[in-house]
Amino acid sequence: MTTNVLTRRPEIHAGPQVAAPEPTETAIETRGLNVYYDKFHAVRDVNLRIAARKITAMIGPSGCGKSTVLRCFNRMNDLIPTARVEGEVLFHGHNIYAPGVDPVEVRRRIGMVFQKPNPFPKSIYENVAWGARINGFQGDMDELVEESLRGAALWDEVKDKLHQNALGLSGGQQQRLCIARAIAVKPEIILMDEPCSALDPIATLAIEDLMKELVASYTIIIVTHNMQQAARVSDFTAFFMVDERRTGHLAEYGPTDQIFTRPKNKATEDYITGRFG
Ligand SMILES: Nc1ncnc2c1ncn2[C@@H]1O[C@H](COP(=O)(O)OP(=O)(O)OP(=O)(O)O)[C@@H](O)[C@H]1O
């Protein structure tokens, strides 16, 4: 295991072809990223620099490769046997796809929250403690569980039933529990793949509020179909499109207010105004 290659080393990578919000610190960056599923070219040549401790939204029509790109940020595509990734994903200046990099360590540093809340069929406490236990956490577990649940704005609702089964929580509470589970291992980046799509509007707003709090400490990258959500929560927006071969690519990237009010690309404008997709 060569986890040393992922050692924290904040730096900014300039590159003529890299779409980038500058001059903020970079959390993670793709260079020449291409993804294939067997022979299907799903995503082509994505150059995307993600700003640290900001919320970046990835939007675009169905099938344009948003989830595929998101999964490259913590090597989740490794778990799909037909997926092949080319290009680089630089985290602290090191390619997480380089030989010798441990994907488990990558996923500890870059956590993920999925579309459908997926707590384990265990107690609330055990759900939060799980990752820390696996990582051999030696500190005060009660403290870590409380801190993580507070961080996920769930503590007050569950503090009296920590040892009840997590599956008894509402969908919105389960999703916040999944966020607590993600932050318990102290990641630097949290990837969110449509985290609110299974939630009602009130639970959705609670997660959005939570994201705005979490971004003080974490970099958040969210895939969303919900334009209003992207506009409400994100600092930067990356708009993806598909070409005639259904291959996804990054069409426009910039500050969210610019993308939503003064898009440079006609396709972006059509998409955000609902004329496409
Ligand atoms: N496991 C897989 N095997 C084969 N093809 C896949 C797989 N996952 C995704 N694809 C294909 O890759 C392309 C990009 O899919 P992806 O799920 O990344 O898009 P998306 O923009 O997130 O879509 P949606 O908004 O519908 O979730 C699509 O054409 C999809 O069918």
From TrEMBL:
Lineage: Bacteria, Bacillati, Chloroflexota, Caldilineae, Caldilineales
Top-level taxonomic group: Bacteria
Signal peptide range: none
UniProt-listed PANTHER family: ABC TRANSPORTER I FAMILY MEMBER 17 (PTHR43423:SF1)
Residue ranges constituting the ABC transporter domain according to the UniProt record: 28-272
A Pfam family: ABC_tran
Protein name per its UniProtKB record: Phosphate ABC transporter ATP-binding protein
Presence of the UniProt keyword Nucleotide-binding in the record: yes
GO molecular function: ATP binding; ATP hydrolysis activity; phosphate transmembrane transporter activity
GO cellular component: membrane
Organism encoding this protein: Litorilinea aerophila
InterPro entries: AAA+_ATPase, ABC_transporter-like_ATP-bd, ABC_transporter-like_CS, P-loop_NTPase, PstB-like
Keyword Nucleotide-binding carried by entry: yes
Gene: pstB
Biological processes per GO annotation: phosphate ion transmembrane transport
Keywords: ATP-binding, Nucleotide-binding, Transport
